[in-house]
Amino acid sequence: MSVRYTAVSWTPHKKRYDLWIAVGVLLTLAAFIGVSLAVDPAATVETLLLRGLSITAVALLHIILAIGPLARLDRRFLPLLFNRRHLGVTMFLLAFAHAALATVQFHALGDTNPLVSVLGGYAGVGRGVADVPFEPFGLVALVILFVMAATSHDFWLKLLGASTWKALHMGVYAAYGLMLAHVGLGILQTERSLALPIVLLCGALALLCLHVAAYVRERRFDRAGAPADGEFV
Asked: Distance between terminal CA atoms of the chain?
């Protein structure tokens, strides 16, 4: 039995959705770069792009993880759920751009292969938390995000089957944990301000509360034998 490839159908709704994603990404990057230059006019373009791309990708990842429980709590979020893959592909592209720029800036100018340098350039590992390599965590997260982005088309859903495809895309939670490790062992080791760790902590707590609330609501309605307003019937 073969699986026939079906081209992506770019409906007017999807085009508007993608336009809003592009506008949101550009506005976030512009706002971050503008505020950063106001605070530190001496900041380099490379540093601003690295941080802007990573912050935008992390923000999108939080939004992606929040859409599922929000749609279970309120049906008005279902349109976002139906088009969540577009956000996932956008987030991967931002993360990839961040990783590519970081690799070129910090690992491409030496004698060692850049990938080898990313994975093995940590002679000081073992002296403390600050010496634990953080880039491999980001690399593994990027690989997971790539697999998810590459299989986001319905072709792969039909080929792999719903259960396998769903299990594969549950890897987003592993990618989220690896991302937190990457940030926690990286920029947070040198960042003096508490703003970033507070924002990340609030984001993680918000996601936890949303998932718990959705679980409790669905469990309550399951026991009552009736569908919740935010559930599929």
From this structure: 31
Which tokens hold the place of 114? Answer: 């850049």
Span of 90-104, 115-129, 169-183 with lowest mean pLDDT: 115-129
Structure tokens that stand for 82 in this block = 């139906």
Alpha-carbon dihedral 178, 180, 184, 187, rounded to 10 degrees: 100
pLDDT tens digits, one per residue of 69-109: 999 999 888 888 878 888 999 999 999 999 998 888 877 77
Predicted TM-score (pTM) of this structure: 0.81
- What is the b/e burial string over 147-177, where b = at least 16 CB atoms within 10 angstroms of the residue's CB? bbbebbbeebbeebeeeebeebbebbeebbe
> Which residue, 160, 195, 200, is CA-closest to 177?
200
- Going by C-alpha positions, the residue among 73, 67, 70, 54 that lies closest to residue 17 is 67
